[in-house]
Design goal:
Blueprint: E1 3-5, H1 17-31, E2 36-38, H2 51-62
Parallel strand pairs: 1-2
């Protein structure tokens, strides 16, 4: 079983790792890094930010994880 993390945002706010980080980190803690992946719901996510800014945010959220933890 795997979990896709996508489409997370706070209405009427620009997407940011600071605001959405906990929403992404909770499932990673529950399922583990090896069972989670990020995705976009573009073009719908375009309402909250650009695709590159959202994926840069995803990268910032998981930056603290050691590569040794990720299979």
């Amino acid at each position: 079983m795997h979990l896709k993390i996508s489409g997370i945002c706070v209405p009427v706010q620009r997407w940011s790792a600071a605001v959405n980080g906990m929403v992404a980190l909770d499932p990673i803690r529950i399922f583990g890094v090896e069972r989670c992946s990020f995705a976009s719901n573009f073009p719908l996510d375009d309402v909250v930010d650009s695709l590159s800014d959202i994926f840069d945010g995803f990268k910032a959220i998981v930056q603290p994880f050691s590569p040794a933890v990720i299979p």
